[in-house]
């Protein structure tokens, strides 16, 4: 007799989405709206994994399945190997203690002090006063707000409120932290400091972080792994560095084009044509990393192509601590010049993308 045994989730996986679909009843229409379609995704234990997608792609729905705020219509969501959809109320309470969450609008209680907000999950869990004191003080130290323990949320900046949100999320010593657009309401500098804090918590406490965002900057700054979601389907996933330097799906490319340094100057972008006419120049993006980033590529390119090469845009940056560069150049689109340029790109292991042609 053949017995089918459910696939065990591997030891190094924090959250596993297995063939997960979510359909919502559509009001006023027949049928249902499919918010998630057959999602398979593993979130590595100890990783900072980002889920990025445009508005309405299904990010919030995906994250709400992890702490049981939604149930899948089909498929399974496993957290540390436990099937969230099969939990009863007591099981869900336990799960929510081991899964912290932070929110775009912080969700602090205005009538409670900073200390009172961080203590709340512990009070709900029935922890005694002394143990609460012993837990909350070091958490406030960790997020750098020990001196604000008696203040009220209205007296804090957005970044400080999010630090309190993080301390509160950590109060019950979760193994997993969910972040729902936690930096979207913050200015760029405050965003950076919150992302640094998340990185530190991930490294020091070994906490897995699953964050959803529509901002590529956030993914670039903090995640080790990323999945791109589009219309309820995961269209691309991998280590963040690989996905950023070799984006395969059109949605990923579109999201990446919004990054500072990736944008073409307006005058060039407006004049870009999909095909070349006689006398046009090809506009090509070169991406280089590792050892390539340190070589004098531009002068070598000019020498090899033997014609005028214009530099249109360029940036040197880091993804997950690894340096990479992106350079947009233009050169004559005739077959001979293009052939020489392509040989140079191949010989130097450069990733290239023809963006179009300009007169
Ligand atoms: N309770 C619900 N009932 C009906 N439709 C819903 C429900 N929740 C979400 N949806 C729909 O599912 C789709 C995905 O929504 P979701 O909130 O997951 O997207 P998102 O990627 O988080 O978007 P945003 O970045 O704008 O928050 C949307 O089209 C939304 O209208």
UniProtKB/TrEMBL annotation:
SUPFAM superfamilies: ACT-like, P-loop containing nucleoside triphosphate hydrolases. The keyword Cell division does not apply. GO terms for cellular component: plasma membrane. GO terms for molecular function: ATP binding; ATP hydrolysis activity. CDD domains: ABC_MetN_methionine_transporter. Keywords: Amino-acid transport, ATP-binding, Cell membrane, Membrane, Nucleotide-binding, Translocase, Transport. Belongs to the ABC transporter superfamily. PANTHER family: AMINO ACID IMPORT ATP-BINDING PROTEIN, METHIONINE IMPORT ATP-BINDING PROTEIN METN. This is Cell division ATP-binding protein FtsE. It comes from Sinorhizobium terangae.
């Amino acid at each position: 007799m053949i017995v089918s045994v459910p696939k065990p989730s591997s030891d190094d996986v924090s959250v596993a989405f297995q063939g997960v679909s979510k359909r919502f009843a559509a009001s006023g229409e027949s049928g249902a709206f499919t918010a998630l379609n057959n999602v398979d995704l593993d979130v590595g234990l100890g990783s900072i994994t980002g889920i990025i997608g445009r508005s309405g792609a299904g990010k919030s729905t995906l994250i709400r399945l992890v702490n049981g705020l939604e149930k899948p219509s089909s498929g399974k969501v496993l957290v540390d190997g436990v099937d969230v959809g099969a939990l009863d109320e007591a099981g869900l309470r336990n799960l929510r203690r081991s899964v912290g969450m932070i929110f775009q609008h912080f969700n602090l209680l205005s009538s409670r002090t900073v200390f009172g907000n961080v203590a709340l999950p512990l009070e709900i869990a029935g922890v005694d006063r002394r143990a609460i004191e012993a837990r909350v003080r070091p958490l406030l130290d960790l997020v750098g707000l020990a001196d604000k323990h008696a203040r009220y949320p209205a007296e804090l900046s957005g970044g400080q409120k999010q630090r309190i949100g993080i301390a509160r999320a950590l109060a019950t010593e979760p193994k997993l932290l969910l972040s729902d657009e936690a930096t979207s309401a913050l200015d760029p500098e405050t965003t950076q400091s919150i992302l640094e804090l998340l990185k530190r918590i991930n490294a020091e406490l070994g906490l897995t972080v699953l964050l959803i965002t529509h901002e590529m900057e956030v993914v670039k700054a903090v995640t080790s792994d990323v999945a791109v979601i589009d219309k309820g389907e995961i269209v691309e996933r991998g280590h963040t560095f690989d996905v950023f330097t070799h984006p395969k799906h059109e949605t990923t490319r579109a999201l990446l084009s919004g990054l500072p340094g990736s944008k073409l100057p307006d005058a060039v972008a407006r004049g870009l044509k999909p095909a070349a006419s006689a006398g046009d120049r090809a506009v090509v993006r070169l991406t280089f990393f590792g050892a390539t980033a340190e070589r004098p590529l531009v002068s070598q390119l000019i020498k090899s192509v033997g014609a005028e090469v214009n530099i249109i845009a360029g940036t040197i940056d880091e993804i997950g601590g690894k340096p990479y560069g992106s350079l947009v150049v233009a050169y004559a689109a005739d077959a001979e010049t293009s052939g020489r340029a392509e040989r140079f790109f191949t010989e130097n292991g450069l990733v290239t993308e023809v963006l179009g042609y300009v007169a």
